[in-house]
Structure prediction request, 205 residues.
Amino acid sequence: MPNGLCPVKAMQAERIAEVPVTTTVPIEDRDQLNLGCGRKLMPEAVNVDINPVTGADLIHNLNQRPWPLPDSHFDKIFAFDVIEHCTDVIAVMEEIHRVSRDGAVVSITTPHFSSANAYIDPTHRHRLSVQSFDYVTGSNDLSFYTATQYKYRARQIVFAPSLLNRIVGRAANRWPQRYEERWAWLFPAWFIYVELEVVKPAQRR
Prediction:
């Protein structure tokens, strides 16, 4: 078994490794990046997906790093419902940081760990907390996992619309740690929205 993988996982790894990198647009002409776009293409962005069926501008496996994208190029990065599919969240955040300009805005959504959506999709590798991004903003004692720097612009635990969830949502976003430790399984959330600003100190001198 190659690399200790079972035969099925070995074949899956080979298929992923064989995804060819193809692009249909001049990347230097666009300053927005839409990662894991699926069929939700943004005409003003470089749309990236692993599946050619989506019609993405750049066909690439985000688990293969470095990405075939230039350093310090993009002003806006969208990562909607994609980061939970990647093998290494910290490495993805480092690549986003690399291809972003100083001050770029990164918008991320991912299912909250208490949501059924976090478990239904068999390709999800991670179930994340609204506090997971503290590890790249210096808000956690273990933020030494990476040298890349971001700062929060916004973050929100989002709930499915209902009167009860409106009340719970207010409390959860006021006391997110308490909610996730004590209430999350009683009042499950829907997804997390995080907006980060890229910080590149060397470009601010």
Remarks:
- DSSP finds five helices and eight strands in the chain.
- The chain has one domain: 21-204.
